[in-house]
Specification:
Length: 58
C-alpha cells in the first residue's frame, strides 16, 4: 500500500506542476501532460480504493 501511495503522490506532483504551467504561462504542452497525469491519477485512485477496502476487511 505504501508503494501505491508514493505513486499517487508522484503523479499528483507531476499534475500540479504541469497544471500550474498551463494556467500561469498558457503552455499548451503542459496542459496535455496535465491531462495525461489526471488520467493516471484516476487509475491510481481506483487501485487505492480497492486496496483500502481489502485492508479494512482484515
Amino acid at each position: 500500500m505504501d508503494a501505491l501511495i508514493n505513486s499517487i503522490h508522484t503523479a499528483y506532483e507531476a499534475f500540479r506542476a504541469d497544471a500550474a504551467l498551463q494556467a500561469e504561462k498558457c503552455n499548451k504542452a503542459a496542459g496535455t501532460r496535465a491531462r495525461k497525469a489526471s488520467l493516471e491519477l484516476e487509475k491510481l485512485m481506483k487501485e487505492f480504493r480497492k486496496a483500502s477496502l481489502e485492508a479494512s476487511k482484515k
